[in-house]
Design brief:
Dihydrodipicolinate Reductase, domain 2, binds nicotinamide-adenine-dinucleotide, 9-stranded mixed sheet, 379 residues, alpha/beta, 2 domains, Rossmann fold, 17 strands
Length: 379
């Protein structure tokens, strides 16, 4: 019988739902020593929190996250709030001895992230950050192929994350659902929100980034603020593009925007190596495109691998070969790996310390765009 791991979740929005779904499913598909128990959900609006608790099966509700941290019956705290709350909650949770699962980006900036790393390391609490795309089976397969050396020396890493939902100048900033447009709540715009995913994947697949040069733009300079009712300056980056040198000598090219009309969540990456290339597209997430120059010339070409076979990462836990899984499963995989790590007493990546590296790249990108120069990652 798996041991219970009592979860206290803070925030019940988009990620609150994605994580709750993962906690409820994971033991049905993975054989684990731990079983998440939905002990409490915390949000400021009690009526809405109760409704959420009833829908998802949480045993209780808290309206103040500090109260949640005081509870002896909560083992692990899941931080699903806007970015400006990650640091305060995570440090308090570490001091309370809780296991921590924190949404990305780790923090508003590197300085905050460093404080958070110190707190979890001093407290010795297990911790992880929800860079979930690593655990899309096709992305995990990309990692496997690179680590096996199939691509050979890597020359290029290219990634995009394109959306189009903030083009209207009538869209306000701030408050529920629109905190992403408010620099005080989000820290940055597409850099911390979208490029952080691309950067985490890049660091994982292709190693460290040495330096960057970036440009950002804020297309709509002022928007009504939902919390003050006044028209206020927009402090986030609406779009960001950067070039970088990886430590392994390869070149990186990254772009993200919320102004690419027609694109909703077009996260793609392509890696070109000496022997082979791979590319992946979130809109078709169960496929990995692979080109191997060593193939026999007459049949050489891009193959589209349907990553649904039992020998593909994670897939033996699901249905039968040929049947695809989706976005939500990346969260189930993260929970499964995290619980396996807890049982083995081993950290599971990306830990706070791993996610700090992404934060450092984000900061270098924003500094470079401001100064119109090259910035070394980590200062
Ligand atoms: N891993 C991913 O792919 C992914 C996707 C989306 C969002 N995120 C991250 O998840 C976090 C939350 O984003 P979201 O899209 O779920 O936002 P959301 O707006 O849907 O939900 C945020 C939740 O936080 C709650 N909240 C705000 N202040 C609070 C407080 N003081 N106490 C308790 N609850 C509070 C809100 O009530 C809401 O339930 C962000 O850090 C975001 O960057 C990650």
């Amino acid at each position: 019988m798996p041991k219970p791991l009592n979860i206290g979740m803070i925030g019940y929005g988009f990620m609150g739902r994605a994580h709750s779904n993962a906690y409820t499913k994971v033991n049905h598909f993975f054989d684990l020593e731990y079983r998440p128990v939905l002990k409490a959900v915390c949000a400021r609006d009690e009526a809405k929190a109760k409704e959420f608790a009833a829908t998802w099966g949480y045993e209780s509700v808290e309206t103040d996250w500090r109260k949640l941290l005081e509870r002896k019956d909560v083992d692990a705290v899941d931080i699903c709030t806007p970015n400006n709350l990650h640091k305060e909650i995570a440090i308090a949770a570490a001091e309370a001895g809780k296991t921590i699962l924190c949404e990305k980006p780790l923090a508003m900036n590197t300085a905050e992230g460093e404080e958070m790393c110190r707190a979890v390391e001093q407290a010795g609490v297990p911790n992880i950050v929800w860079y979930n795309y690593r655990r899309v089976p096709a992305v995990t397969l990309a990692k496997q192929l690179i680590d096996e050396g199939r691509l050979g020396r890597i020359f290029h890493f290219r990634a995009n994350f394109l959306q189009d939902w903030t083009i209207s100048s009538d869209l306000p900033q701030g408050g529920a659902a629109l905190w992403r447009l408010d620099a005080a709540a989000a820290g940055s715009g597409v850099t911390g929100d979208l490029l952080a995913h691309c950067i985490d994947t890049a660091l994982w697949l292709n190693g460290g980034i040495h330096d960057v040069t970036a440009m950002t733009e804020t297309f709509i300079k002022e928007r009504k603020h939902n919390l003050t009712g006044k028209v206020e300056k927009v402090g986030i980056d609406d779009a960001c593009a950067f070039l970088c040198h990886f430590e392994n000598g390869s070149l990186g090219l990254f772009e993200s925007t919320r102004y690419a009309r027609g694109h909703k969540a077009l996260y793609t990456f392509e890696i070109n190596g000496e022997n082979a290339s791979i590319r992946w597209d979130l809109h078709d997430l169960h496929r990995l495109e692979y080109y191997d120059h060593r193939d026999d010339g007459v049949v050489r070409g891009w193959r589209s691998i349907h990553v649904t076979d039992g020998e593909h990462p994670y897939m033996k836990h699901w249905w039968v070969p040929g049947l695809a899984i989706g976005y939500e499963h990346s969260f189930v995989h993260q929970v499964a790996d995290f619980l396996a790590g807890l049982a083995a007493g081993k950290p599971v990546s990306p830990t706070f310390r791993d996610a700090l590296e992404t934060q450092k790249v984000c900061d270098a990108v924003l500094d470079s765009a401001k100064g119109r120069n090259w910035q070394k990652v980590g200062g």
